[in-house]
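Supplementary Methods S3. Input chains for the assembly prediction are listed below.
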Amino acid sequence: MPRTYVIAGTASGIAAATARTLRERGETVIGIDIHDADIVADLSTKQGRLDAADQAIEMAGGKVDAAIACAGLAHPIAKTVSVNYFGMTEWLEALAPTLAKSEAPRAAAISSMASLMPNDKALVEAMCVDDDEAKALARAQELVDIGGGMEQLIYGSTKRAISRWVRRQCVKDQWAGNCIPLNAVGPGIVRTPMTADMIATEEARAGLDAQVPMPCNYYLEPEQVGYLLIWLASIENTHTTGQTIYIDGGSDAVLRGENIWGD
Ligand code: NAD
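Predicted structure tokens for the full assembly:
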């Protein structure tokens, strides 16, 4: 019996590859994106998120087994906060009551190796502690206005916030109480349109490789991230929850070293 997966971001990159693999395996996929998708919606707006969830539930005939939140922007602009954090969390929350009716519901979101990079604490907390989009947008715009590289903290801040959100939410009634494992993946560099310019030249690659060293198998193809998302969203995953699983060719181990337990 095929499972029904709702995936955000399917017009391109990791989500497109994930949707393709699932369809090849005979599963049912409903794709959402701002263009070229089963459901066209702008996840940077509250209304867009809620409409996208409602339409997906309707298209699925009321039965959604898994939701994978994989849309995103890498631009150092305030809107990145709305897509990468609120576009994922509010959209997943809107789907949660329907997921809860599945026999084996699962949810997964996309974080990044960037969740381990420098971030702006005020921005991170406006997202995952205050849950205040207006406040987060204002702080992100402040970082843009200050400039001088501060705007580069926005992307990593959205990824730190989503990893914290997953840990915070996974044990709550809405998720654990309904037997829904909720996780994130944290990819290193993946060959998608998002990174095409960043890895286009040898010089650019050298700079990036110093920041995100990937000694095991180097850059990822989007399908390879998809396999992990698919496992997290599969019936085989019953107890892994609240995690950000780094799929990064060893970056985390290189950068944070052996002892991450703080004692
Ligand atoms: P991509 O640019 O190929 O795909 C992103 C998709 O998100 C696009 O189809 C885009 O249209 C969609 N999107 C953007 N804004 C939207 C909006 N307002 N409403 C609906 N859809 C919207 O990028 P990708 O590399 O596949 O990235 C997917 C996710 O993976 C992002 O969250 C990104 O931060 C994360 N990620 C990527 C990498 C990488 O190296 N590529 C590494 C770590 C994490």
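Strands lie at 4-8, 28-33, 39-40, 66-69, 106-110, 182-187, 244-247. The chain has nine helices and seven strands.
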